[in-house]
Write a structure and sequence with these properties.
Strand order of the largest sheet: 1-2
Distance between the termini: 72 Å
Oligomer: single chain
Number of helices: 1
Radius of gyration: 27 Å
Structural class: mainly beta
Shape: flat
Order of helices and strands: HEEEEEEEEEEEEEEEEEEEEEE
CATH topology of one domain: Hormone Receptor, Insulin-like Growth Factor Receptor 1, Chain A domain 2
Length: about 230
């Protein structure tokens, strides 16, 4: 019976780790995002399509919005999905192999094929009455519900109260709050201490260390502090 020494076990573990790291590594310049253990492409990067031979070729979808194509697998001239990032939609969707603007001009992201709106641009929501993107009733609101009256996210300096109305942060020198009475971040030159925004006591400091008014974390001009102090210009 063979007995493994600790040294042999360590070597074996290193070899397993190395083989695992190599599995899925794609060849340089292949434009492939994910490969199998043999180096064969499984998924191409956005903007590229995988050919029957397993290589990745840039999408060449015709039309003025052809560059928005993110997936053209099997046919580089036929788009299956257009670029749309969560929280930062492009208002473009795939229809019949082409990239087109969402039917609703105020729609940030819509479903491929149907064009049905999923999310609207900031300050708007899909109205339950019209089914279209409509301004929230509160101009300080970023995100509201289909009634357009209840806000869940407000612009900097305010937060929704229990009724869903944007109310200014109560804490003095507060830059953003999760509720009118709860500050999350203070204005430049101030730091949150015990729920209040206290002025940094370090000269030339933009941001103090959380809970510390005498220890700087970032100096004016994005200069790093030295031992919690800002070096003189």
């Amino acid at each position: 019976m063979m007995v493994r020494t600790p040294a042999l076990c360590v070597v074996a573990l290193l070899l397993v780790a190395a083989s695992g790291a190599l599995a899925g590594r794609c060849p340089t310049g292949s434009n492939c995002e994910k490969c199998n253990s043999k180096g064969q492409c499984i998924k191409c990067f956005d903007g590229y399509g995988k050919t029957p031979k397993g290589t990745c070729i840039a999408c060449k979808v015709p039309g003025p919005l052809g560059d928005f194509c993110a997936n053209c697998d099997g046919n580089t001239k036929y788009c299956r999905a257009c670029y749309n990032w969560e929280g930062e939609g492009t208002g473009v969707y795939a229809k019949n192999g082409r990239c087109e603007r969402c039917p609703d001009p105020n729609c940030e992201e819509c479903h491929n094929g149907s064009g049905k709106c999923r999310t609207c641009f900031r300050g708007m929501a899909i109205s339950k009455k019209t089914g279209k993107c409509t301004n929230c009733a509160d101009k300080n609101c970023i995100t509201c519900d289909s009634s357009l009256k209840t806000c869940s996210l407000c612009y900097t300096g305010s937060a929704p109260n229990a009724a869903g109305i944007c109310v200014p942060c109560i804490t003095s020198n507060c830059d953003s709050c999760s509720s009118p009475t709860k500050c999350e971040d203070c204005k430049v030159g101030y730091v949150l201490v015990g729920g209040k925004c206290e002025k940094c006591k370090v000269a030339g400091c933009d941001t103090c260390k959380p809970g510390k008014t005498n220890v700087c974390q970032l100096c004016e001009g994005a200069v790093n502090p030295v031992n919690g102090k800002c070096p003189k210009a």
